[in-house]
User: What shape does this take?
Amino acid sequence: MKDIIKILQQNARISNAALGEMLGISAEEAAAKIEKLEKDGVIKGYSVIVDDDLYDKSTVYATIELKVTPQRDCGFDDIAKTIMMYDEVESVSLMSSGAYDLAVEVKGNDLKDVAFFVSERLATIDGILSTSTHFILKKYKEKGIFIDGEEPDERGLG
Amino acid sequence: MIDYDKVLSDKIKSIKPSGIRKFFDIAGTMDDVISLGVGEPDFNTPWAIRKAAIQVLERKHIIYGPNKGLAPLREAISQTIEKKHGVKYSPDKEIIVTVGGSEAIDLALRGILDNGDEVLVVEPCFVCYAPLVELAGGVPIPVQTKIENNFKLTLDDFKDKVTERTKLLILPFPNNPTGAVMTKEDLEPIADFLRDTNIMVLSDEIYSELTYGRKHFSIIELEGMRERTIYVNGFSKAYAMTGWRLGYVTAPEPIISQISKIHQYGIMCSPFISQNAAVEALTSCDAEVAKMVDEYNIRRRYLVGEFNRLGLTCFNPEGAFYVFPCIKSTGLTSEEFCERLLFEGKVAAVPGSAFGDSGEGYMRISYAYSLKHLMEAISRIEKFLKKLEAEKNEGKNCG
Assistant: This one.
């Protein structure tokens, strides 16, 4: 299972035949394994990694640190679930830092968009004590893929 | 004007430059070529090793160090070999840390050979053996392994080539370029034969950590073979440490005490920073090596499957990071095939003939590349083969 996930993380569009070869199994077996991983919920979906500089220059990303009062009985889950319902939100994670509790990645059409979302949508949720917004200036690597071009191969031939 | 032709030794002038190099000098000048040629890992040296080197730079006085290598490193090498093969070498008397595996090979050859001594060189093999034998005054006698035996060495391959001048058998397994490995059962008949002779073995086990599906077995484990084997290994391939230039040679004390003189006068000692870092490699990096081996294995299975699908029959290599598909079905020689693949298909691979006559009809494909890179290369090779096929059919129609 580890190998199959590792390969799909590098290239989720790989054919079942090639995947099977890499794993030393048939294409049908590879397809069945993927189907099982999807059914079991191990694989949640497939996405695409885009270079926004080439695709849509105006898109803005920000990471927002939230300090939150944990709720009785459900801790941070309730607030996290509220936050993740918004389309603008790309990811929500509970952090162990102490300085803040939830890290939220937000995508917007422009700076104003994100600023509005933070002040009007996030900051107003009950239990959120403070927000700290960091705009992302440039992405170098995402999900293991180099966004900013790959290093040239300088190896010899020994 | 000075006549350099008269200045240079006849011996060095007679040595041919590496066949790999020649080919890739052309590839280097071309745009948009993707290479499957390199013989070094695409992974970076594990961080723990690099960090150890940084600490040495920060905290230590960078000195020569002992001729045979740093004591803790020799100790770690001794323990590693004992753990893997159950064979003990004395850290003080039976180990020299060298500048890569290649220096270890050179030391062994220069220490063993007198003028005219014959060395059995198992082919296909890495390009350095025959020239180094010649430089040491010896005569390389090629021993050709065969595809029917999955490029393993059999006693029949070399029995008839043994003469009273035969001093050494070079045993390069896991093999570059074929990826062939030798199991205990494969080595036993060879050891049986050698035990009654004065022939030494130079066992180049630089790819010993990179095997798939079975653990590497060394000839030193067989009865009576430790005393007649010069064992060579290094850090380049297993730990992705090519640029650190570090290898080692182990052998019985009478041999090490003599060949250490060559190292002493010619090299003095191996790089101090690299040696310190290498202790870290041997003591704490098994998990990193295992991770790299897993990744190589995925690529290996993919390439073997794809080449067979494309009709370039490819036996299943169990070691190193090369596959060795057969290109005879195209009707071209390996040099012609690789040259056309380079110019027309924009993929650089090394012709099998660069590794000895028995490599003719094959090409060496390295999988020290990302899957993405390999998949692109395969799609180009597929296109190129279709083009060759179309040409063939056209030829038929005209004829």
User: Anything to note?
Assistant: The radius of gyration of chain A is 20 Å.
